[in-house]
Amino acid sequence: MSKHPVISARRPLANTGIFRIEEMDLEFSNGQTRCYQRIVGSNEGAVLIVPMPDPQTVLLIREYSAGMERYDLAFPKGHIESGEGLLDAANREIQEEVGYGARRLEKISSVTVAPGYLYHSTHIVLARDLYTRRLPGDEPELIEVIPWRLADLDDLVGREDFNEARSIAALFMIREWLEKE
Amino acid sequence: MSKHPVISARRPLANTGIFRIEEMDLEFSNGQTRCYQRIVGSNEGAVLIVPMPDPQTVLLIREYSAGMERYDLAFPKGHIESGEGLLDAANREIQEEVGYGARRLEKISSVTVAPGYLYHSTHIVLARDLYTRRLPGDEPELIEVIPWRLADLDDLVGREDFNEARSIAALFMIREWLEKE
Questions:
Q1: Which of A7, A18, A172 sits opposite B172 (nearest CB)?
Q2: Mean pLDDT in chain A?
Q3: How many domains does chain A have?
Q4: How distant is the Cα of A160 from the closest Cα of chain B, in angstroms?
Q5: Segment 16-35 of chain A within 8 Å of chain B by CB
Q6: What is the C-alpha separation between A146 and A129, in angstroms, rounded?
Q7: Residue A1: which pLDDT band, with cuts at 50, 70 and 90?
Q8: Residues near A180 by beta carbon (within 8 Å), at least 6 away in sequence
């Protein structure tokens, strides 16, 4: 186990309102020095929710990803607001994006997306015992909701338009979680 | 299937040498307009490699993640250089980070990390038939290599220090791929 590097300086480089970038000077325990840049996300992080209307089915959404400039399938997700609990954030996001709330919400894991370059965690939440409820969101268009049978996981993972790493990881982790229950 | 939004303008917002950020004006097919920011990665993207010294074992690396400010386990990965083939990039990265080359390299999938905010793809490569060979890398310290039995996947996914979404997704996808072979 290596000793953590010492961070001797941090300098803000850019803040675009959405992205805050800082530069860090590091000295590793072997004396090597490096200057790295990273994006500083919120301390609260984000939630990704796997909503299950029944024990065999998950709900995906199809929405436009501006970063990739295409429509893709994924699980609903969103930022946790300041002061908001992570399960409350999960329940708000599915009401905004899927049109359901959940009476049973469980955090099953937390994942990172680009740990070398980004300070950010996404908490994966399993949502069951759903009820119909829609909250207004800030989406530019109605989000398409697509039910998918867990038994057909292979077909989903093979699709060109289902490729977000967090959604793929969540899908497999949820299946393992359910098998253990 | 929604019609793609029209991107009416793109403006560069920041370029820190590592991160290039642009702002885009979009008009969705329903007439709604939005202004989004995204990080523009390389067209080549990155590779994540799952090296297998034998049919039961994968090789993980333990290295410092500056974004999260901690040491974590993950599969080796790196950027594809301009003009470099993706399998060549995979073979170079494992020689730099793990100390092995591979005679058998197969792309099994491509994943995104934050499709709403980032233009970037990571190609997952399975590397087999390994041989000892080390290329000099730019890492600040020697990378620890940790063999892990695929049969113990559950223990790995439950670990606090194995949480990168692409590595978790790759691990499950590789297991499915091998089961089908």
A1: A172
A2: 96
A3: 2
A4: 9
A5: 16-19, 21, 23-24, 26, 28-30, 32-34
A6: 18
A7: low
A8: none
Q: Do residue A12 and residue A95 come from a single domain?
A: no
Over residues A21-80, the pLDDT tens digits come to: 999 999 999 999 999 999 999 999 999 999 999 999 999 999 999 999 999 999 999 999
pLDDT of residue B2: 73
Q: What contacts B103, CB < 8 A, 6 or more positions away?
A: B128, B129, B130, B131
Q: Does A178 touch chain B (CB under 8 A)?
A: no
Task: Give the helix ranges, DSSP H, for chain B.
Answer: 86-97, 153-157, 165-180
B119: closest CA of chain A, how far (Å): 5
pLDDT in tens, A65-121: 999 999 999 999 999 999 999 999 999 999 999 999 999 999 999 999 999 999 999
**Is residue B1 situated within a structural domain?**
no
Q: Provide, as residue numbers in chain B, all residues whose Cβ is less than 8 Å from the Cβ of A24.
A: 66
pTM of the model: 0.97
Check A26 against B163: CB less than 8 A apart.
no
Q: How many CA atoms lie within 13 A of A8 on its CB side?
A: 10
Strand order in the sheet with B46-51: B77-79, B46-51, B122-132, B100-111
Specify the CATH number for the domain of residue B102.
3.90.79.10
Considering the domain boundaries, does residue A150 fall inside one?
Answer: yes
| Residue B29 predicted with pLDDT over 90 | yes
Is the domain of B150 the same as that of B172? yes
Taking contacts as CB-CB distances below 8 angstroms, the residues of chain A near B27 are: none
Domain residue limits at A14: 6-40
